[in-house]
Amino acid sequence: MTTTLTKADFQSSQETRWCPGCGDYSILAAVQSFMPELGIPPERIVFVTGIGCAGRFSYYMNTYGVHAIHGRAPAIATGLAAARDDLSVWIVSGDGDALSIGGNHLIHALRRNVPIKILLFNNRIYGLTKGQASPTSELGKITRSTPRGNQDPPVDVVSLAIGAGATFVARTVDRDKQHLPAMLRAAAEHRGTALVEILQNCPVFNDGAFDHVADKQQAAEHRIPLQHGKPVVFGAEGERCVVRAPDGRLALGETATADPASIVVHDARGEDPSVAFALSRLGDIGAGPVPLGIFRSVDAAPWGDGLVAASREAHQGVGTAELDALFRAGDTWNVA
Amino acid sequence: MDRTTEERERVIVRFAGDSGDGMQLAGGQFTAATAAVGNDLVTLPDFPAEIRAPAGTPAGVSSFQIHFANRDIATPGDTPNLLVAMNPAALRANVSQLEPGAGIVVNEDAFTKRNLLKAGYEASPLDDDSLDRFQVWRVPMTTMCQRAAEAIEGAATRDVQKSRNLFALGLICWMYDRPIDGTERWISDKFAASEAVRDINLAALRAGWNFGETTEVIGTRVHVAPATDVRPGTYRNINGTQATSLGLIAASVRSGLPLCLAAYPITPASDLLHDLARRRDVGVRTVQAEDEIAAAGIALGASYGGALGVTATSGPGMDLKAETIGLAVMLELPLVIIDVQRAGPSTGMPTKTEQSDLLMALHGRHGESPLPVVAASTPGNCFDAAYEAVQIAVQYRTPVILLTDLFLANSSEPWRVPSAADLPVIDPGFAPPGDPDSAFLPYARDEHGARPWALPGNPGTQHQIGGLEKADVVGSISYDPVNHARMTALRAAKVAGVAVPDVVVDTDPGAEVLVLGWGSSAGAVRAGVRRVRQRGLPVAHAHLHHLNPLPSNLGEVLRSHRSVLVPEMNSGQLARVLRAEYLVDVHSHSKVEGRPLFAAELEDAILKEIEG
C-alpha cells in the first residue's frame, strides 16, 4: 500500500512561536510543502538545529528532531551520519549559529562532504538575543552591540562555503515560493553536503534587509539568476550581464555593449570552484544585485561512503568466538 | 669468581636512555619475557612531553620501569633496584630515585666529555665517589655492539649504533634469568625485510646475554620465582588503553550497538583513538573530529542514531566537552565520555598523571546536571570499568564519565582474559514502532527512570528533543516552574538510582583505620596497606569504583571506623565529597606531583593514622 504524503504529515503539534511576519514562517511552510515530494516517510527524516530563532525549526516538523546547542548542529548531524545511512538529515541554522560559534563545524562538514542538507537562514542580525550584530551584518551597521557602527567586515556565506570545498552551494530568498522549493529540491538530490543560504527577513530587528531581492517589483533589477548552462544575464530585459574581463576577473557589464563571447555561461558542475567563487564575490548582498541560484553542484563521494554499511556488517560478524580471539591476541600464558 | 644466584621476592628495574634509544622497546620485550616466566608484574613507561627534547639532556630522558615478583603485586614500584643508564643524562635524571645499594648498569661508551657536559656533569660520576652508595657496572655497550656486528655483511654503522638497547636487554635478561627466545622471534619478524638489520639486532641481543654469562663482570644473578598466588586462567599483558578499548569493543558486541568513537588528539587519550582506529574489522568507526566540542557532538549524534557513541579526551578537552555533556544530560541519551586524567590545570603537565578531574566529572556543568561517574583502578580493570560505563549509559539513557588516567593508560599488568560469553548482555531496549492511535511519549520513564530510546527511522515515534526543558512525559517545550522542578528531580533520581554494588571492606580484626581510595591509586594503596599488615598492625581497606552514585553502604562503612584516610593524587577532592555527603571528618593524604602515589609514603601515612 502506498500512501501519498501531504504537508500535514510534516506538521508537528507544537505551537509555532516566532514573531509575526518572521521569514521563518514562510520557510517552514515551504519546507513542509516540499517534504512530500521527497517520498521519504517522516520517520526517516531528521532535522538538527542549533540555537537562535531558526533553532526552533526542528520542533515544528513532524519528523525526528534534535534542537542541539549553539553552532554544533553540524557536529551532531555528522555523528548521526556516521551511524546511519538510511536517513535524510537536515540542518537548520542561522547566520550567527552557523558562521560565528559554529563556523568551525560548518567548515569541516563542508570539506568532509557529510551527507546532510544545511539550510542557513541569513537575516544579518542576532534576533533571539535581541538585535546584536551578526557575522553577516554590514560594516558600519548600528545595532545594540555596535552603537558606533559595526567594525567587523561581513562574511559571505557562499564564498565561505565554496572556499571550504562545498560540493553544493545555493542562495535563495525566504518569500520566493518558486525559487526556494527549487533550491530545496536540488539540495535534496545532492549526495554530499548541500548548503542553501536563505536570505531571510527579521521584521523586528532588521526589517527589510532583503526587500531589494524579495520584492517582486525589484527582483529583476536586483537578482542575478544563476542557471547551469545559461549565460549570466539579468535585468528586466536581460540588459545586464556578467562578463569575463580581459584581466581574467568577473565583472558586471551591459549586455548591449559587451563582447558576446565574454559573457559568462554558468557552469555549476565544473570541478574547478574558481568561477563559482568569483560569482559569489559579485554584486552587493545588501543593495543588489545579488547572485541567486545554484553556484556549485558537483558530484563527489559523500563522507564515509559505504562505511556505515561496512561497519554494521563487520559488527554483526563479531560474536563471542571473535571477541574471545580478540581478547587473546598477542602473547598469552596459562596459569593452572 | 664464583657465580651465585640470589633468590628474591621482587625486583624493580628501570631502563633509561635518550628518547630514541629504544628504552620503551627494551622494556616491552623484558616485560613479555617476565610474563612468560610467570611472575606477576606492573610496568610504568615514562617519556618526555617534547617530541624530541635535546638529545643527551635530562629533559630528553625516556624510561621504562617494571616491577616483577613471585606474588601478586600492586604497583610499578617506588625505588628501582636496578637502573640501566644508556648515557649520563639518563643517570642524572634517575639516580636520585634509587635506594642505597641499588645496581646501576651504564653504557660506558656514552660517558664522553661532551655527553657529560650536556647532562650537566662537570666530571664523570663514574670516576669520582658520587656513586659509592651503589653497585656500578661499566659496560662498553657501543663497542660491544660494534664487535658483535663485525662479521655481518652490509652492516651500517647507524644500525649497529641503534642496537645498543638490545645489548642492554640481553644483559638484563641474563641478570634476571629471563629467556630471550621471544625477543629473538620478535626481531626476526620485525626486521624480516632486511637481513643485515635483523642479524645486527640478534647479534646485539645475544652479545648482551653472553656478556653476562661469560665475562663475570656481574657476579650475581637474581632469580624471582613464578608467582603462585595468581588465579588460574589465561593471561596477557595489557595496558590501560588497550583494556579500555577492548572493554568498549566487548560492550559494543554484547549490546549489538556498533561503536562510534569521536575524538580530538590529546595526550594521553590519543592512544585510545589510535587503538580503536585499527578496529574497523570489528565494526568500530572512529572519527578524528575538528575539535573536542565536535568530538562530543559527533559521539552524541551517533548515539542518537542508535550507535554506541563514545568520546575520549584528557583534562583540557573535558572543559570543551562540558556543553555537549550537559545537552546529553538533557536529551537523556547514552554517551560514554572517557577522561584520561593528567596533571592540570590548563595544559598542566601533559605527560604526568593526576586524579584531579573528579570534581569536574561530578559537577563540571552548569545547572543541575548529575551523571554517573565510574573510575578504573588498574590497567586491567579499565576493561571492566569501560564495560560498566556502557552498561549504565545504555540502561539508564545517560551520559557516563569514565575516569582513567595517564598512569593507568600507560602502565601494564597481566590481565586475566575474560570469556566473552560470561560478559552480561546489554539490552539497548529500543522503542518499538509507535501506536498510530496514541501519541508517542518521549519522556515517559521505565522502571529505571530511563526514557524510551526511539531511533530515527522507527515509524510512529517521531519526536523532537533538545536542550530546552521539556514537559514531563509528553516532551514538549516547557517553561512551567513546577515542571522544571519535577524534571530536575526525575533526572537526579535516575542517576541516584543507578545500581552500584556495595563497597567491599578488606579488614583485619580490630582495625580502627579505614584507608579508602579511588581510581588508579588502588595499587599503591593496597601495597601500603600490605606493608602495614606485615608489621602486624590491623587496618581496613576499601576502594571506590563508583563515584556517582556512591555505594549505598558507604556512609555506614565510613562511620564504623575511628578514622578514615583518603589518599588521592589531587588536593583532596574525594575527601571533600565524602565530608559533604556523610558529615564524616575523613583525613586526606594528598599528592599533586604528577606522579603516582608510592607504597612507602602510604605506609607512613597509615602508620600515622593508626597512631592517631
UniProtKB/TrEMBL annotation, chain A:
<dbReference type="GO" id="GO:0016625">
    <property type="term" value="F:oxidoreductase activity, acting on the aldehyde or oxo group of donors, iron-sulfur protein as acceptor"/>
</dbReference>
<feature type="domain" description="Thiamine pyrophosphate enzyme TPP-binding">
    <location>
        <begin position="58"/>
        <end position="198"/>
    </location>
</feature>
<dbReference type="InterPro" id="IPR011766">
    <property type="entry name" value="TPP_enzyme_TPP-bd"/>
</dbReference>
<dbReference type="GO" id="GO:0000287">
    <property type="term" value="F:magnesium ion binding"/>
</dbReference>
<keyword id="KW-0560">Oxidoreductase</keyword>
<dbReference type="GO" id="GO:0030976">
    <property type="term" value="F:thiamine pyrophosphate binding"/>
</dbReference>
<dbReference type="GO" id="GO:0045333">
    <property type="term" value="P:cellular respiration"/>
</dbReference>
<dbReference type="InterPro" id="IPR029061">
    <property type="entry name" value="THDP-binding"/>
</dbReference>
<protein>
    <submittedName>
        <fullName>2-oxoacid:ferredoxin oxidoreductase subunit beta</fullName>
    </submittedName>
</protein>
<dbReference type="Pfam" id="PF02775">
    <property type="entry name" value="TPP_enzyme_C"/>
</dbReference>
<dbReference type="InterPro" id="IPR051457">
    <property type="entry name" value="2-oxoacid:Fd_oxidoreductase"/>
</dbReference>
